[in-house]
Amino acid sequence: MTTTINLQISLDALIQAVTSLDLESKRQLLDIIEHQVFAAEEASYVEDSETQAEIEAVKIEYQQGEFVTIDDFIQAQSN
């Protein structure tokens, strides 16, 4: 079982704590932060009805075969 706690610390204290970490710990923290940012951005896209409609339209186009592979795109650009 995982226990969750909420801490309130200043940004300066957090920066000092991160600065004191070794390189591997900083990489682990970066990975965690990137995942959190990605999840938050993805959630905000779902909440935006215009973006959601665009995603659905693209999915339909893809299912209908209306897409160009990257190789085909590159080939067309070189001609």
What would your notes on this structure say?
- The chain is mostly helical and 79 residues long.
- It folds into 2 domains: 9-47, no CATH class; 50-79, no CATH class.
- 73% of the residues lie in helices and 0% in strands.
- The protein contains 4 helices and no strands.
- The chain has helices at 11-19, 23-47, 49-63, 70-78.
- The longest helix has 25 residues, at 23-47.
- The chain is elongated.
- The model has no long low-confidence stretch (mean pLDDT 88).
Task: Provide the fold topology.
Elements lengths: L10 H9 L3 H25 L1 H15 L6 H9 L1
Offer a few descriptive terms.
79 residues; mainly alpha; 2 domains; 73% helix; 0% strand; elongated
| First-residue to last-residue Cα separation | 60 Å
Structural category is mainly alpha
Order of helices and strands: HHHH
Give the total of beta strands.
0
Strand content: under 5%
Quick take:
This protein is mainly α and 79 residues long. Helices cover 73% and strands 0% of the residues. It has two domains: 39 residues, no CATH class; 30 residues, no CATH class.
